[in-house]
């Protein structure tokens, strides 16, 4: 049994659905194969920020922006990684992000913004309303409207080749699917592949779980086995997050509908900022962990047994240390001086850039399960289930290191103040997560997957994280931007490719 369409898309996240819609509106019959029971991928799990220049939202806000300004700001954000940037793809992203955001608006996605986000000079971050499920719902609806067929629970285990060496289709669940004009890989990143993390980053990183457990690098492996080149596979976004809240998350639970999105946008723009801030702070304390600046001010990270486990200067180091610990949990410990500092602007505990900020007291109010306060270290230890003598010994050793400026245990450089003034606080438990990976397949400006010599593989394209091509996406809203931009571009490109007459498979490309 086989199925033949013009364009075959593997992966039903944001990039895959954008690719399918773009191909369909270009006149091609299109099929999506998604291995999960439902579409959405990392797009549906994200905060939902979309960074773009020259948008109607900016115009209404009086922001005078340009593509060149956007690119210059991305250079600043890249820092030492600028030398690794794919300059051509970055310009493609910058030039197409604005029109793509406007296109999303046209199919019912509403945004709040633009909001500022340092180090960007111009406000460019547009936050989706009411939450990231808006992307999934709007794109799914558009797929149905444009005649795109979606098959879920279909894991592709091989790409199919014809006698000329062209990629002509894929095999999933024992069935063959053919794309006369081409095949698009849009399966996300490899953040949940222990093998790839261990190979390219290290065993410590392999122990850190991913937010999206479906991101096992399938498309990257298939493309590489077909002759493609993997780039930047050493780049992971690792950090600590609080254990999930058992309380309902109002922001996440809001259903998507264009009318609902417009209503939320009206509420955010019209209702008192204090009221909106309270609602979003509740969501903030559910989604993310504390800012690293708290450690720089004197906080420390301890394990479930009450001992420091890592150099707190590095989010990556802390995440790996907690993941390696048998209990896989950590607590941030600090005193009254740090608590006061992070109880008001400009020092939030956690941040939804440009929208809301959560402080120490917000955790007391919204997350009492991760907020602990006590007059003494003994009482704090009991509150978090740690041996009091161990915690006191750990704090004493840290205070001595802080006063001397030498951390003999982990070589931390940013000390802040000692933990000496009660009451004392703990935030946690926290767990380690990888939110994203920046590695992917090399692609040309047409988003065709390329071999080591830069020659494109006939019939094979990639979008989103799978086809990131060496892009540095180091600030909020760029991954969503690239997913949507690359999907729309690749859909048009494949639809315009010549249809192959030879769809007889003579071999397959199997990555497992």
What can you see in these coordinates?
The strands form five sheets. Strands 1, 2, 6, 7, 8, 9, 19, 20 and 21 form a nine-stranded mixed β-sheet that branches. Helix 1 (14-24) packs parallel to helix 6, helix 12 (273-287) crosses helix 16 and helix 17 crosses helix 18 (388-404). This protein has 512 residues and is of the alpha+beta class. The chain is built from 19 helices and 21 strands. It has two domains: 2-235 and 438-510, FAD/NAD(P)-binding domain, CATH 3.50.50; 239-434, Succinate dehydrogenase/fumarate reductase flavoprotein, catalytic domain (Flavocytochrome C3, Chain A, domain 1).
Which short descriptors sum up this protein?
512 residues, alpha+beta, FAD/NAD(P)-binding domain, Flavocytochrome C3, Chain A, domain 1, 2 domains, 9-stranded mixed sheet, 21 strands, globular
